[in-house]
Design a protein that fits this description.
19 strands; single chain; alpha/beta; pyruvate-formate lyase- activating enzyme; OB fold (Dihydrolipoamide Acetyltransferase, E2P); about 425 residues; 4-stranded parallel β-sheet; 5-stranded mixed β-barrel
Length: about 425
């Protein structure tokens, strides 16, 4: 979501006569788009502001600085108290105002602020988005979240769920496909909760999947509570919908899940996985997990480890618990020592890496269709399989954006190695 927001900012600025700068030192305007999910991410903002302030004082007095995103929405004008050199401050729903606010700040010499969370988050015209990936375009389907997870600040920063009309989404997908993008990823904080005037998430997927010229369709992020038979059937039946799903679990312990207010038990999560794999046996799954949540015992942490064994995820994004302002968990005693949190994080990641190494090794000798996304170096490119696995192989830059056939020759825990077989037409 933040990447897509940054693409909107870049496109807006370009449409107003700005050009991308090579680096901060040569920029007239630097915009920091922030995340508030973890405390560390918020701390990075203030470190970055201090660095930019030094640049401004020593080399670029004319430099203008903007801050947006979830930390801006969460901390509001207090950011201006710590960073008096900030010129533009916008919330999560006010990106479309950035060029006007920058012009205002430049003219008045005073900070220009817009933190109105009631503003239209979809106000930026899709045609202006400066997509940063040569092969994949992000298309926002919905904003906000109606869940009340005890550890999560997102409902405060993004607001309640707001769904775009399905035809607006289809129109944007058609537009990016016409611009040459092979793959579309639908975005939302809880994208599979999508509902709009009788169109559920599976219905939206059906409409997007029917767009002529689209090669691949993905979506993120999903919540287990909104996985149903129609969504599982869509993953099985829709020709362009890739067999990959990111489905955060957060913990393998029933007590911790209940304290987190996740709305499901361990057994219910495993039943959801069974439903999905009954429809799509080779479905690739990734997840999120938090270790060191208040009150988490060693035995409860072991339950998360055992869940990895049960599900056999293809990828894991693991984090230590981080207290966030205004959340229910903030009122709990953060009683897991930082050193123990780090130990559990290391153990969890190492365990997952072993699982991924074994799984990826099983693909050696197989061939996959790879959508080429990046140039890794001279004569070297990389892309992803339909299951979202990264493959590196020798190839020319002209392959970017194409789907090619690759034979897998090697594997590590996080990526595959291969050789080009033949382009697909």
């Amino acid at each position: 979501m933040n990447v897509n927001d940054s693409e909107r900012v870049a496109g807006l600025l370009s449409s107003n006569g700005y050009e991308p700068a090579e680096d901060e030192a040569s920029a007239d305007f630097v915009f920091l788009n922030t995340c508030a999910v973890r405390e560390k991410a918020a701390s990075k903002l203030h470190h970055s502001l201090a660095r930019l302030r030094h640049l401004q004082r020593t080399r670029r007095p004319e430099l203008r600085i903007g801050v947006g995103g979830c930390v801006a929405q969460l901390e509001g004008t207090s950011i201006l108290e710590r960073g008096r050199h900030v010129d533009v401050l916008v919330g999560t729903h006010n990106i479309s105002r950035i060029p006007a606010l920058l012009e205002q700040a430049t003219a008045t010499g005073q900070p220009a602020v817009d933190l109105d969370r009631e503003a239209d988050a979809f106000a930026v015209a899709p045609s202006l988005v400066a997509h940063g990936n040569a092969a994949r375009a992000y298309v926002t389907a919905m904003e906000g979240c109606n869940h009340v997870c005890s550890f999560c600040v997102v409902p405060r920063t993004r607001g309640p769920e707001v769904n775009r009309p399905p035809q607006a989404i289809v129109d944007e997908v058609e537009a990016v496909v016409a611009r040459g993008f092979s793959e579309v990823m639908l975005l939302g904080q809880t994208v599979n909760a999508y509902r709009y005037e009788g169109v559920d998430f599976a219905g939206l997927l059906e409409r997007v999947d029917a767009v002529e010229g689209l090669r691949r369709l993905r979506f993120t992020t999903s919540h287990p509570e909104h996985v149903d038979g129609r969504m599982a059937s869509a993953l099985r039946d829709l020709a362009r919908l890739c067999p990959y799903l990111h489905l955060p679990v957060q913990s393998g312990s029933d007590r911790v899940l209940a304290s987190m207010r996740r709305g499901y038990s361990r057994r219910q999560y495993l039943d959801t996985i069974a439903l999905l794999r009954d429809c799509v046996p080779d479905l690739a799954l990734s997840t999120d997990a938090i270790v060191g949540y208040p009150g988490e015992t060693e035995a409860e942490f072991e339950e998360t480890l055992s869940l990895l064994e049960s599900v056999r995820f293809d990828g894991l994004f693991a984090f230590t618990y981080s207290p966030r302002p205004g959340t229910a968990a903030l009122r709990m005693d953060d009683d897991v020592a930082e050193a123990e949190k780090q130990r559990r994080l290391h153990v969890l990641n190492e365990h997952q890496q072993q699982l991924q190494r074994r799984r990826n090794a099983s693909y050696v000798g197989h061939q996959f269709d790879v959508l080429v996304e990046n140039v890794d170096g001279q004569g070297r490119v990389s892309g992803r399989t339909p299951h979202f696995r990264i493959v590196h192989f020798d190839g020319a830059e002209r392959l970017v954006g194409q789907v090619v056939r690759v034979a897998i020759t090697g594997a590590g825990p996080n990526a595959l190695q291969g050789v080009l077989s033949q382009p697909l037409h």
